[in-house]
Amino acid sequence: MKRKAGPGLARTGEAQPSMPDAAVLSIRNVSKSFGPRQALAGVSLDVSKGEMIALIGPSGSGKSTLLRSISGLQAIDPGDGRIEAFGGPVQENGRISGKVRQIRTRIGFIFQQFNLVGRLSLFSNVALGSLGRISPWRGVLGLWPEETRLAVMAALARVGVADYAAQRANTLSGGQQQRAAIARALVQKAKIILADEPVASLDPVAARKVMESLRDLNSQDGLTVIVTLHQVDYALRYCRRVVALKAGRVAYDGPASLLKNEQLIDIYGPEFEDVFWEGAPT
User: Element (H or E) spanning 209, and its range?
Assistant: First the structure.
């Protein structure tokens, strides 16, 4: 398969955020097993404020498991593993912290399949991001405060889908729905965005728009972004730092510009030729 770009060729002309200065996420010796299969095996990472990190690796390497563990959507294995966000505990020793809901209000999670309510309008879906700050009954009845309404329309405009605010989510394209999911994280006022394969089901044009939206939030708003990607081309173009997992362990953690062919061949094995998306930007 002919590929459009090679590792180590991250575009230097792209606008990049300044170097991060404060840690917002700490992962220490995290393991997770599903029956006999070990998805994560002693993973440790520090993530600093303002970073945009690509989390890559072959299928089954533990990327999605790590993201869900960071947000407290699943418990890690008992032991000395722990995860902290914003200086507070998310989970430790296989137990999710009682304070995790408070921490989650500052962490936006973007799923591969958009996670929107299809029968609701795009506006209502994005407004749901405010539920951590308003009375639940107002959300159930759709009685959004004026502040929320203004924030929703601003967020939809920011990602380029304000014209579709009144349409049902399930009538829109995948790319439009995914950008609405990003807008919802904006309304949530998230400081960390975790995006799990956000472009996996999109065509290259829609995928580029989604990745550009995430990059803009990182470079212009200083949001910390961790995005799992199957397409290495996209990881190299849009992210300064790359963390690669192999069999549940960190196989590479460093600048995208220093990631070489030989390392990717070792990480991906037979999948190597499939991780460069024909049509990805060069």
Answer: helix 204-221
- Quick one: tokens of 200? 């996996």
Place of tokens 């006022």: 189
Question: Sign of the CA dihedral 200, 201, 207, 210?
Answer: negative
Contact 103, 88 (CB under 8 A): yes
Helix%, strand%, coil% for the chain, nearest 5: 35, 25, 40
Residue 38: burial class (beta carbons within 10 Å; 0-12, 13-18, 19+): middle
Protein fold of 23-106+193-199+224-282: Rossmann fold (3.40.50)
User: Degrees (nearest 5) of the Cα angle 196, 100, 131?
Assistant: 75
Count CB neighbours of 108 within 10 A: 25
Rounded Cα–Cα distance for residues 163 and 142 (Å): 20
Tell me: the pLDDT tens digits for 191-218? 999 999 999 989 999 999 999 999 999 9
Per-residue pLDDT of 140-197, as tens digits, reads 566 788 999 999 999 999 999 999 999 999 999 999 999 999 999 999 999 999 999 9
Taking each continuous run of H as one helix and of E as one strand, the counts in the chain are 9, 11
Of 253, 200, 187, nearest to 54 by C-alpha is 253
210 vs 70, 169, 177, 200, 270, CA distance in Å?
22, 16, 10, 11, 28
Decide: pTM greater than 0.70. Answer: yes
